[in-house]
Write a structure and sequence with these properties.
By secondary structure, this protein is an alpha+beta fold. It has one domain: Jelly Rolls (Sandwich). Helix content is 16%, strand content 39%. It contains two helices and eleven strands, in the order βαββββββββββα. A six-stranded mixed sheet has the order 1-2-3-10-5-8, with helices on one face. It has a three-stranded antiparallel sheet with strand order 7-6-9, covered by helices on one side. The protein has a two-stranded antiparallel sheet with strand order 4-11. The radius of gyration is 15 Å and the shape is globular.
Length: 160
Amino acid sequence: MVVSLGQEMNEVNGAQLAQLKQAAMSSPQKRARICLHRDHYEKVQEMVIAFCRDSYVRPHRHAGKSESFHMIEGELLLVLFSECGQVTRRTRLSPGECDGTFLCRLPGDVWHSVIPLSTFVIVHETTTGPFLKDTTEHALWCPDGSNAEEIAEFQAYMMR
C-alpha cells in the first residue's frame, strides 16, 4: 500500500504511523509506505515505510542511485551481497536511543535486502529520483517471493 502526501510541507505523526502499521498488516507484502514526494519524477524520493516482521524484501539494487535508511522504530537487519549472492555484510539498524546504527547510506549498485527483526519496523528512506520501476534490478540468485519455504530458508541464510 502506498499513501502519497505530496503537499508543499509534509508532516508525519504517531497516528499516521499507527495507520501505516495497520496497512502493512493488511498488505500481501506485509509492508506499506507514505510517500513524502509529490510524484515519481522528483529528484529526491522520500518515504516512511512500515514493515511487518514477516515481510520479505527480495535482494535488489538501484543502478546509479544512492539510498539512505533512517530508523524510526524497531530493529532491521540490512544485508549486502556480492554479485553472485554471497553475503558480504550485515548491519543491524535501530533508532538512535538504542545505541546502535540508526542511519545508513548505500551506494547505488550494491545488492541489498532488509529483514525486519521486530514485530514492526518503521524507516525513513531517501533515494535519488526519479523513480522508474524498470531501474530496480532484482537478483536472480534468490527466491522471487512466491514460495514461503524458499523465503524462510533464504532469510535464515541471510541472518547466519
